[in-house]
Design brief:
Elements (H helix, E strand, L loop, with lengths): L2 H13 L14 H19 L3 E9 L5 E9 L3 E6 L5 E6 L2 E6 L4 E6 L6 H4 L1 H8 E4 L6 E7 L8 E8 L7 E9 L5 E11 L10 E2 L7 E2 L1
Helix pairs in contact: 2-4
């Protein structure tokens, strides 16, 4: 497998993972369920409170191989994964479709954002509120939410990890997420140096189409 193909596999696993059945969890007492419901609501509010965000990210596959880059997010629905210079790949969403551009082989792939686990980030009111459930972490400062649509497993599964942080929008900071594919292959995205509220031009979420020299599209 070429280096480019490995990178594409990692990206696809992180962003379009196919869901596998979740482990059965013992239902907590009613008081705990009420507290957990509050944490779910707070996490949704925290995601919705982000107007723009930039962060460094490290993407790691199950074997421990990692690539890094910079993530830029803008509501509604826009996101950009710009990988390190040695990686000839870009992933962007213009709010309607998620596009992966492989400049090494001059390929462009697009699919509806609603078919990606990233829908939970880009439309939290729809995905997290409706399909999310809290997963016990054993750490009161950490909130873990698994999001998947049991009726549409092909849309994928994503687990969002938050740290309680009063300085972050909504009092919770998204620090990582984990995707699991149908072969039980895990891909993790870890964020650092999160920054909020900066001006981000819509042109950030366009790309140079390698199939047509000089053309930029969204």
């Amino acid at each position: 497998m070429t280096s480019s193909n490995r990178l594409i596999r990692w990206a696809m696993a992180a962003l379009t993972a196919v869901a596998v059945p979740a482990a059965t969890l013992v239902a907590p007492p009613l008081a705990a369920q009420t507290a957990q419901s509050g944490d779910l609501d707070r996490a949704v509010s925290a995601l919705r409170a982000i107007s723009t965000m930039q962060a460094n990210f490290v993407q790691t596959d199950r074997s421990g191989q990692s690539i890094s880059g910079v993530l830029t997010l803008k509501r509604p629905g826009k996101i950009r994964f710009e990988y390190e210079k040695s990686v000839p790949m870009l992933i962007v969403s213009d709010g309607k479709a998620l596009t992966m551009i492989d400049y090494e082989v001059r390929q462009v792939q697009r699919w509806p954002i609603k078919n990606s686990p990233l829908g939970a980030l880009l439309d939290p009111s729809r995905d997290v509120a409706r399909y999310g459930k809290l997963v016990p972490t054993g750490n009161p400062g950490v909130v873990s939410i698994e999001v998947r649509d049991p009726k549409r497993p092909e849309y994928g599964r994503i687990t969002l990890i938050f740290m309680r942080d009063g300085s972050a929008p909504g009092g919770m900071e998204l620090v990582s997420w984990v995707a699991l594919d149908s072969q039980n292959k895990r891909t993790t995205i870890r964020l650092s140096n999160q920054r909020y509220g900066m001006a981000v031009a819509d042109s950030t979420f366009t790309y140079r189409d390698p199939r047509r020299t000089g053309r930029r599209t969204g």
